[in-house]
Queue: 4 jobs
Job 1
Amino acid sequence: MTEPNDILFDVRDGIGRVTFNRPQARNAFTFQMYERVAEICKEANEDRAIKVLIFTGAGDKAFASGTDINQFRAFKTPEDAIAYEARNDRVLGVLEECRVPTIAAIAGACTGGGAAIAACCDLRVGTKTAKFGFPIARTLGNCLSMANYGRLAALLGPARVKDIIFTARLVEAQEALALGLLSEVVEDVEALQQRAGDLATLLASHAPLTLHATKEAMRRLQPRLSAEEGHDLILMCYMSKDFREGLDAFLTKRAPQWRGE
């Protein structure tokens, strides 16, 4: 169930601040929260007073810990799985194509859908506690969409993507800085919000068309895939017995027993 304040959005001096506001759930996303991210990006496209968007998580434990696992209980059909990944692809596409620069200000866990959102942002600043990852190989046994795999491969390279997903490890702040996942590391949440605000103020003072053209040029350099590309992989994972096992194990706090079927 999404509450009206699950995402907070305010604009001051041309800078929009978007706060994922479910700290009690490590800022895990409901389906409607993804939609709200897309709505905010569209608002920024239409409102020329908005120069920059900052995305951050409430509290110091998580930027966003991915999709709220409870929502997967309702998955019964192939259409459910395809629709879920299609929704995320659409939302992330809107974020990537947003007219204004986007900054992810990251403290704590940045995993799954949260890491996908951060990867779509133009700049990422984190605290020393920031941790990135897609631990799906030890949690749910699902997969990413081809668009997400492609985005990560462009950012990190295929070998590093396989390393992170195969091992299901979380990349800590200093390694993330070395890999280019973060552009800066700061001490704590207070310093994070200050630095993100200062960076946004700087970007807001620069030529908006230059920034937009550069964003769009970088986006166009990425490979383009058809909407159906990878549907077989999504169905293989989401419709498997392993996915149901991973979901049940996660919700009952036990280790999953994978069978590869």
Job 2
Amino acid sequence: MIVVVMGVSGSGKSTVGQMLADRLGCGFSDADSFHSAANIEKMRRGEALNDSDRAPWLAAIREAIVARRVAGRHHVFACSALRSRYRDVLGEHDGDVVFVYLKGAPEVIGERLASRAGHFFDPALLQSQFDTLEEPRDALIIDIRETPEAIVDTLLHKLAACPGGALLTPISPAGPARVQ
């Protein structure tokens, strides 16, 4: 199973994604690491990315997803995947790719971004992400007001009900899950 934790910047994708991967005992990739130097510099300058900026980035993430699937490996990706067509590229309609949408109010996410240090994303771009966002219909939708630990517990329960989710066997609510 491939899990893509999606949402706007500051929604908790990296934190929740890494925690989920740890609990599942599988790999984790942050889509930020797939950005070109030019894209990173553009965001540092406070400029929003456009579709042509995102196309090679999405293709690289898709290649990584396919490689994990071909190898038969479970994997968690943190990726904004803001538009429906971006999710299509990443494999939304593939049976073993599950999207998890971390949904939160702009005010809550804005506060998170204001307190985040050392990230290239300019918090002034948050509104442009909400403007771009096409909320998914076929994703697991999670309210981000819970703690990351509670979100991961909820996700483990919901993922178990997905096709292929029976392969995920949590050892305990607080302990790691076991991937068969």
Job 3
Amino acid sequence: MHVFYEGQVLWSQIDANQHMRHSAYADIAAQARLNMLGAVGLNPVTLLNARIGPVLFKEELFYLREVALGDMIKVTCELVRARADGSRWTIRHEVYRGDGIKAASINVDGAWIDMDKRKLTLLPEGLGHLFSESPKSDNYIEDIPKSK
């Protein structure tokens, strides 16, 4: 298990039903994902200097158990699928409560965007190999892009 975020559920993350609000899950998943990228050398400064950033096409959240105010949580991240060139990818995040119970699973599909051209791109040659070092799921799939 590759934990990339740990913290306490804050008052500002609670909804009217007194459990963690839906958008807080997306926030903690995004932070865990950035921490994962940073752990392999793709920290925000490196990406900003390259004028490239991650962009999401789809975010899917499965709620499994309630998370309440003050709960301690851990978030794991791993690549589930990626193209061989790293241009498109799927990352799974799992949110665990302090008692070890899995509370949510978040899957995102994404790619890399050139911040100046506002178009999808590849990571530069010097950075592409770093992304391939990201933790991978046991059922990881590497896709080969189709020829045009």
Job 4
Amino acid sequence: MTDHATPILTRRRIEAAILKDVYDVLLSTHGAKIALETIRAAVTQSAISQGKAMATGFDHAPDLLDVMEILKLWTQDDALELDLISSSESELSFDVTRCRYAEMYQDMGIGFLGGVMSCQRDGSFCQGINPRITFHRTQTIMEGAKFCDFRFTLNNASNGDQ
């Protein structure tokens, strides 16, 4: 079940505190590679599950106008500042110019895990909410860029599943 009452930024802070401890334990017992791969796998699975849960709130396969509505949850409490480029049922493009998620991970001393804990969720979430949505991004604030370029497209080719 997805909790819409708790802002996502707050949820990510709570998750990050727990995942940092898990990372530290795995780091000491299995090394950096296994620790990072395990956190990545867990966050990916969580994002897909959250996308699937979000999809159940629609009476149709969510399109990118629906994702635009969901974006309100991602930006709640000024978590993201963005410049909208385009939005339609089949295309959604925007640039994030400020990311409080990145700021939060830096403040927590775990900026090095921010991309795994947050940025990688975006594409995985799309897999869960509607596998026909593709996500592309070439840069992130988390990695030091001035902005994150979010580009979503909806493949309308039906494979018999919607």
